[in-house]
Automatic annotation (TrEMBL):
Superkingdom field: Bacteria
Annotated PANTHER family: CATION EFFLUX SYSTEM PROTEIN CUSB (PTHR30097), SLR6042 PROTEIN (PTHR30097:SF4)
Pfam family, one: Beta-barrel_RND_2
Residue ranges annotated for the CusB-like beta-barrel domain, each copy included: 217-293
Homology family: Belongs to the membrane fusion protein (MFP) (TC 8.A.1) family.
Alphabetized UniProt keyword annotations: Transport
Protein name (database record): Cation transporter
GO biological processes: copper ion export; plasma membrane copper ion transport
Molecular function terms from GO: transmembrane transporter activity
Ranges of residues in domain Multidrug resistance protein MdtA-like C-terminal permuted SH3: 311-355
Gene Ontology cellular component list: cell envelope; membrane
Boundaries of every CzcB-like barrel-sandwich hybrid domain copy: 74-213
C-alpha cells in the first residue's frame, strides 16, 4: 500500500516537471529578439565628425561686367611736335617693348631743336675757352676782375642753354630718319590713331597710341539698383568669360563707385585681378558672381554631411560618446560646399561626416 503511494507521487512530480519545462521552452521561443542596429565604439571612432559652425549666410549675386586695362598701367602717347608721319611700325594689338620705335615722322620743329643743340654745344665750348684764357690773363695782371666775372657769367649761361637743348632733344628723340615716337612702357597696342603720311599737329587733342600693360586687369562690374546694398568692398567674386568657359578667375571687389549712371541706372564696382598669360583682353564680356553676406546668422555645415531622402534633407547627429540619431534639417541656401541651415541644427552640434548614408539607412 505504501509502495503504491510513493509511485503515484513520483509519477505526478515527473509530469509537473515536464509540463513546466515545456512551458518555459515555449515562452522563450515566443519572446521576440532585439535586432535594433547599434553603433559600436569602434565604428564611431572610425567616422569623421564635424562641428556645426555659425556664420553670416552668403548669397550669390550674378552680375555682368567688362574687362578693362589697369588704369595705372596705361600710357597714352600724344604728339609732342608737328610733322608728317613716314613709317608706322606697329598695328593694333601688337606687343611692344619699352623704348621700341612705334613710328617716325619728318618735323621742322625737331630740325630746329637739333640746330639749337648744335649751337648750344658750340657756345659752351667757346665760352669755356674764353673763361680759361681770361683766368690766365687775370693772373698775369692783363685782365681785370670785371672781365673775369663776365667770362664766368657767359660760361654759366652757355652751360644752362646746353642743358636745356639736351633735355629738349631727349624728350623729342630723333635720328637721321626724323622724329621718333617710342613706347614709354611695355604692353599691348590697344588704341592706334595714326597712319603713314598723316599730318600731325602738336595741338591735336587725340592721342596717337595707347599702350596697356595687361599683366593685371580690371573687371568693371555693372550693379543694378536692386543689388546695390548687397555689393560691398572686399566681397569675393568669381569671373567667367565666353572665351574661356571652363576657367574661373577669382578676386575681390576693391572699389565701389558710389554714383548711379543716369542713362542706364547702373552703379559700378571694380575688381582687380592678375592676368597670367594675358588671357583676358580689354572689352571682353564677363559674368561675375558676387558672394555677398545676407546679414542672417545661420548654422553652417559642409554639404558632404547631408543625406537626401524623398526630397528632404537629413543629417546623422552624434550625441554623447556613443549615441547617434537621424535629424531632419531645413537648408536655407547652398554656396559651393557649404549649406546654411535654418532649422534642425544649432552651432556646436556634432554631425557624422563620413559613411552617413550607411548609418542613415541602418537607423531609420
Amino acid at each position: 500500500m505504501h509502495t503504491y503511494k510513493i509511485f503515484t507521487l513520483a509519477a505526478a512530480f515527473g509530469t509537473a516537471t515536464l509540463l513546466f519545462s515545456s512551458c518555459t521552452r515555449h515562452d522563450a521561443a515566443s519572446k521576440p529578439e532585439d535586432n535594433k542596429f547599434k553603433v559600436t565604439d569602434s565604428l564611431l571612432g572610425s567616422l569623421l565628425v564635424d562641428t556645426v559652425q555659425q556664420a553670416s549666410a552668403i548669397s550669390q549675386i550674378t552680375l555682368t561686367g567688362t574687362i578693362e586695362p589697369d588704369e595705372n598701367k596705361v600710357a597714352k602717347i600724344y604728339p609732342m611736335v608737328s610733322g608728317i608721319t613716314e613709317n608706322v611700325n606697329v598695328l593694333l594689338g601688337d606687343v611692344v617693348s619699352k623704348g621700341q620705335t612705334l613710328a617716325s615722322m619728318h618735323s621742322v620743329e625737331v630740325a630746329g631743336y637739333s640746330k639749337d643743340l648744335i649751337s648750344a654745344e658750340a657756345d659752351l665750348r667757346d665760352t669755356k675757352r674764353t673763361l680759361e684764357a681770361t683766368k690766365d690773363l687775370y693772373q698775369s695782371g692783363l685782365a681785370s676782375g670785371k672781365d673775369l666775372e663776365q667770362a664766368k657769367s657767359d660760361y654759366q649761361k652757355a652751360s644752362a642753354e646746353n642743358s636745356r637743348a639736351h633735355s629738349v632733344m631727349s624728350i623729342n628723340k630723333s635720328d637721321q630718319r626724323g622724329y621718333l615716337i617710342k613706347a614709354p612702357i611695355s604692353g599691348y597696342i590697344v588704341e592706334k590713331n595714326i597712319t603713314s603720311n598723316m599730318q600731325v599737329r602738336a595741338d591735336n587733342t587725340e592721342n596717337l597710341f595707347t599702350i596697356a600693360d595687361l599683366s593685371s586687369v580690371y573687371i568693371i562690374v555693372n550693379i543694378y539698383e536692386s543689388d546695390i546694398t548687397s555689393v560691398q568692398t572686399g566681397y569675393p567674386v568669381q569671373i567667367t568669360t565666353l572665351a574661356y568657359p571652363g576657367k574661373v578667375f577669382t578676386g575681390k571687389i576693391d572699389k565701389v563707385y558710389n554714383m548711379i549712371d543716369k542713362d542706364n541706372k547702373l552703379m559700378r564696382a571694380r575688381v582687380k585681378i592678375s592676368n597670367p598669360g594675358n588671357l583676358l583682353k580689354p572689352q571682353m564680356f564677363a559674368n561675375v558672381v558676387v558672394q555677398a553676406k545676407s546679414g542672417e546668422n545661420l548654422p553652417v555645415i559642409n554639404t558632404r554631411s547631408i543625406v537626401l531622402d524623398n526630397d528632404r534633407n537629413y543629417v546623422v547627429v552624434k550625441e554623447g560618446k556613443s549615441q547617434v540619431r537621424i535629424q531632419p534639417i531645413t537648408v536655407s541656401k547652398r554656396v559651393e560646399d557649404r549649406a546654411y541651415i535654418s532649422a534642425g541644427l544649432k552651432p556646436g552640434d556634432q554631425i557624422i561626416a563620413s559613411r552617413q548614408l550607411f548609418l542613415y539607412e541602418s537607423l531609420k
